[in-house]
Amino acid sequence: MAEYGDVRTGRHCIFVLHAHLVFVTKFRHRVFTGSHLERMEEIMRDVCADFETELREFDGESNHVHLLVNFPPKIALSKLVNSLKGVSSRRMRQEFPELARHYYRANKLWSGSYFAGSVGGAPLSVLRQYIEQQNRPS
């Protein structure tokens, strides 16, 4: 796969796909410190690499994290999210046993829900105008 700036090419396609993901801790507990977030970023970068995805940006606070991922069209975003949340939850709880005290009932780090938003590209109004101006076959 070749890469030209943000434009990536696969075997049969050319693409630029970015998503903004937000994961919130279970019960919105404030559990992360700076060292937790540093390790979390490393774990999530590894998971992204396994999916042929790139973690472009990562940041967080005590009860949530933000990710900006660049991903190929063959990846189902929901599968990437499930892996990111599952692997990070398991590894963080193994490496930082003190996190377990916040989750004695649920034994999960993350809330079951998440935010995913598409990012980048032309504004919808520009795309709509472009599509409307295309010549239609007669």
From TrEMBL:
Task: Read off the SUPFAM superfamilies from this record.
Answer: Transposase IS200-like
**InterPro entries, alphabetically?**
Transposase_17, Transposase_17_sf
Provide an example Pfam family for this protein.
Y1_Tnp
Which domain of life does the UniProt lineage start with?
A: Bacteria
- SMART domains attached here? Y1_Tnp
**Domain (Transposase IS200-like) ranges:** 14-134
Q: Which PANTHER family match?
A: TRANSPOSASE FOR INSERTION SEQUENCE ELEMENT IS200 (PTHR33360)
Record protein name field = IS200/IS605 family transposase
